[in-house]
Amino acid sequence: MALRKRTPNKPTSGNITPKKKTTSKLTTKKKARHLLTTKKISALPPKPNVTKRTNPGGLRVVSREGSVVTVEPTNTAGRRLLSRTQAAETAPTTSRAIDILGGEKILGTKLRSQADVIEAIREGFPDAALDSLLTHLNLSKAQLAKITGIPLRTLMRKLGQEQRLNPSQSDRIYRVALISALAEQILGSVNASSEWLSTPHLALGQVIPLDLLDTEAGTEEVRNLLYRINMSGYS
User: Fold this and answer.
1) Cα 209–chain centre separation
2) Distance of alpha carbon 71 from the chain centroid
3) 3-state class of 231 per DSSP?
4) Residues 184/196, Cβ–Cβ less than 8 Å
5) 42 by DSSP, 3-state: which?
6) Are 183 and 226 in contact (CB under 8 A)?
7) CA 20 to 30 Å from 229, out of 78, 130, 154, 182?
8) What is the pLDDT of residue 82?
9) Nearest Cα residue to 126 out of 148, 109, 111
10) Which pLDDT does position 234 carry in this prediction?
């Protein structure tokens, strides 16, 4: 007698309860944190592309007059920067000052170095150098007499005559020409230099720079102010 293989009864859908799909709390928290972080990052405004303009180290802004900003050294680094600036500008400024006084045509010789200038001052400039300076600065004879410290009568007598100035008078007009040349170099043009030299400035106690050029101390004050303007990095 053949035996039939007994097959188990197939479970019906009503006999089995389907398992619920569960999500771990840790996974849920991570997703929430990720969403929150993403929203925060996207909500941040973009950083503006701003280029900061700063002055060299060791300098402090002391005054602003229009587009001219004046700085002064506050530490050793600033003083070294001032010294390097002065040294770098000596040669071109000297050359320009000689041109203002008439150059080789008026002075009668080519001044190639500071030593040549010193020797020419000791010998005395030709009086025609006064005419050149007067024309360049566009001043009256009375103004030039006051600035150079040369008496007006002496100035009038020397103008137009083939005479030489004495060493003291030559030194004074060279000093004025040198400051005018420095102002041109730093401020960028003859017109800007003339305007600046004829305008009262806060850093000078509301005094006109030209009025300070009759003394060495006043000239040094004007020169230092021009160097501080140059170091400020503004134009």
Assistant:
1) 19
2) 9
3) helix
4) no
5) helix
6) yes
7) 130
8) 56
9) 109
10) 46
**Environment class of residue 15 by beta-carbon count within 10 Å: exposed (0-12), middle (13-18) or buried (19+)?**
exposed
Sign of CA dihedral 24, 27, 31, 32: positive
Q: Do the Cβ atoms of 62 and 75 come closer than 8 Å?
A: no
pLDDT, tens digit, for every residue of 93-126? 888 999 999 998 889 888 888 889 999 999 999 9
Provide the pLDDT for residue 10: 57
Q: How far is CA 166 from CA 89, 115, 125, 169, 170, in A?
A: 28, 18, 8, 5, 6
State the pLDDT at residue 108: 87
At 119 the pLDDT is 93
Q: What is the DSSP letter of 164?
A: B
Sign of torsion, CA 29 31 34 35? Answer: negative
Under-50 pLDDT residues of the chain: 39-44, 48-56, 66-69, 87-88, 234-235
Compute the residue count for the chain: 235
pLDDT for 70: 52
Count CB-CB contacts under 10 A for residue 224. 15
DSSP string, 50-102: -----PPTTEEEEEEETTEEEEEE-SHHHHHHHHHHHHHHHHHHHHHHHHHTT
| pTM for this predicted structure | 0.61
Give exposure, 57-92, as e/b (b: 16+ Cβ within 10 Å): ebbeeebeeeebbbbbbeeeebeebbeebbeebeee
